[in-house]
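#structure-requests
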Amino acid sequence: MLNKELWKKRIYSILSLDNHPGHIAAGFAVGVFISFTPFFGLHTALAVAAAFLFRLNKLTCITGAWVNTPITMVPVLGVSYKLGAFLRGRPIKDLPVSGALEWHNLERYAKSLVLGSSILGFVAAVVSYFLCYYLVLRFRAKDATQAEQAEEMDKVGEELE
């Protein structure tokens, strides 16, 4: 989960993909959106399904879905619930969860959770899209061959065969 070398290797493999930077960034952004959903245990499956459905890169989509780790999930859930409750006009209070973070414990707060997590996920996805796009371009600029290929892809607007 927090293996630094594994994450470095995964990020390097994403940045060096032979795809258009927008395609790479879109897959990562969709994965980030999925990572903010309260559907625990389904993030990877949802990322693979979204990658197939929207014809995105599976590696970037799955990596994006793993951005929100079990360590960060509890604070994100609390903020999502408060945001959703606020937007629904409900009183804002702490998310009262007894026991484990399982769906049957969170079911009665589902509307607020889904609304809040969707908004937070959308904002995080937009930010991650532009950040990933920038990082891919910056990474490719360091290598002359990849920089030339990225420039060609940018002119054509799609992947090169």
